[in-house]
């Protein structure tokens, strides 16, 4: 281990209590998308700015994506720069974390604490957003704080990006930043997205599947359930369509790619909705949502075309006329779409640096692979900028009793510092 890295690692260990306190304070502030009926990230971003206002960053910038649904009409993202040894001419390392979190879900399943009343217990910090993405956000902050405390300028300028709207598609986060401020990004930048990994911190993600969230809307004719022939039960039509779509997609797009975990495309029906509020109503409307994570070899357009063809078959099967109107109707709404970009080269500089950091600090060899989840890394790959996803996580994200290990806060901060120093 280099002398600078050893000193920085020791300094990070001394900062452990401060790191825990910072994570606790951030968890207390819900930062949930207006898509879920909440106010967004404004308050949490302001708290973060207040926390770092006296830190000797060389530059701190705030970019506000307009969103009239959010508090004060904006979805903020923060960029904090700590220059390398050659000042603004230094090569650059981005570490991107997100400040938004998902809703708490079923409160009755939170048995350790309430979602936004963090608790420190048994070496863990419990609370919504503790692991996703608070752990990595705080680790990135204190990787830089340790260098600041020691007066060390790294080999690479570190750009800490704290970004909104990761959990609901990045329309007001990274996607907006890249569209509205392309000058921020350079082809020779290195990018770490610490928002996925495994318990050992030995998995480096270099590829992602395509993402398709598809809502299927079926319209029939509502009727009393005792007289089904007088109407058209949209629920039955939707069940038939969803069953056959699920089967079709798994059979036609069923190849495996061992780079990914899981190795095949996944097509999961996740949400259903219907207006019937009584057992004796045969509903006239029904919705079902599919979450599809698709191997890059397959085309989302082909999948949508197959869904359209199947819809025509199902419509013909149940076809009825009511007052000159032909039913059922089956419509599609794409809630989210992200076509998978080319993977990051496993021999790229950022991959080599991360593998070397893990060897030096943990004595471990990392595995390189792909995942089904979507992260910020995909947006950088689309620009031709190599990006990796890595962190040390138990994968409690989006679950009740979500937690972050304190040891992971500290040890991941050391790895992030190493990427800037080596």
TrEMBL record:
Bilayer-crossing regions: none
One family name in Pfam for this protein: Peptidase_M20
Top-level taxon of the source organism: Archaea
Cofactor dependency: Zn(2+); Co(2+)
Alphabetized Gene3D superfamilies for the sequence: 3.30.70.360, Zn peptidases
Single GO term (MF): hydrolase activity
Keywords from the UniProt entry: Aminotransferase, Cobalt, Hydrolase, Metal-binding, Transferase, Zinc
Domain Peptidase M20 dimerisation: 206-318
Family listed: Belongs to the peptidase M20A family.
Stated name of the protein: Diaminopimelate aminotransferase
Organism: Thermococcus celericrescens
Species lineage: Archaea, Methanobacteriati, Methanobacteriota, Thermococci, Thermococcales
């Amino acid at each position: 281990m280099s002398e600078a890295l050893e000193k920085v690692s020791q300094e990070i260990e001394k900062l452990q209590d401060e790191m825990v306190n910072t994570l606790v304070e951030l968890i207390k502030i819900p930062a949930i998308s207006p898509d879920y009926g909440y106010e967004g990230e404004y308050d949490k971003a302001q708290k973060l700015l207040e926390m770092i206002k006296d830190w000797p960053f060389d530059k701190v910038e705030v970019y506000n994506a307009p969103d009239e649904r959010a508090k004060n009409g904006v979805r903020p993202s923060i960029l904090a720069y700590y220059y390398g040894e050659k000042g603004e001419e230094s090569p650059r390392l981005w570490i991107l974390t997100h400040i938004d979190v998902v809703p708490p879900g079923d409160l009755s399943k939170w048995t350790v604490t309430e979602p936004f009343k963090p608790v420190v217990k048994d070496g863990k910090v419990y609370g919504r957003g503790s692991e996703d993405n608070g752990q990595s956000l705080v680790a990135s902050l204190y990787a830089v704080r340790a260098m600041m405390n020691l007066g060390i300028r790294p080999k690479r300028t570190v750009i800490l990006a704290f970004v909104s709207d990761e959990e609901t598609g990045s329309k007001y986060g990274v996607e907006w930043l890249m569209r509205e401020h392309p000058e921020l990004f350079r082809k020779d930048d290195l990018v770490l997205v610490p928002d996925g990994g495994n318990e050992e911190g030995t998995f480096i993600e270099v590829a992602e599947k395509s993402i398709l969230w598809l809502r299927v809307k079926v319209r029939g004719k509502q009727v009393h359930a005792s007289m089904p022939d007088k109407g058209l039960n949209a629920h039955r039509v939707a069940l038939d369509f969803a069953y056959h779509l699920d089967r079709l997609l798994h059979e036609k797009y069923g190849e495996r790619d061992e780079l990914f975990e899981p190795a095949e495309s996944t097509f999961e029906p996740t949400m259903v909705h219907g207006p019937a509020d009584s057992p004796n109503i045969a509903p006239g409307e029904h919705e079902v949502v599919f979450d599809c994570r698709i191997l890059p070899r397959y085309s989302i357009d082909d999948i949508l075309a197959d869904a359209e063809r199947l819809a025509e078959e199902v419509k013909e099967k149940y076809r009825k006329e009511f007052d000159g109107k032909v039913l059922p109707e089956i419509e599609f709404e794409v809630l989210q779409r992200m076509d998978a970009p080319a993977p990051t080269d496993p021999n790229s500089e950022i991959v080599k640096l991360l593998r070397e950091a893990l060897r030096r600090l943990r004595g471990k060899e990392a595995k390189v692979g792909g995942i089904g989840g979507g992260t910020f890394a995909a947006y950088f790959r689309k620009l031709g900028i190599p990006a990796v996803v890595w962190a040390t996580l138990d994968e409690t994200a989006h679950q009740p009793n979500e937690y972050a290990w304190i040891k992971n806060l500290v040890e991941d901060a050391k790895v992030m510092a190493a990427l800037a120093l080596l």
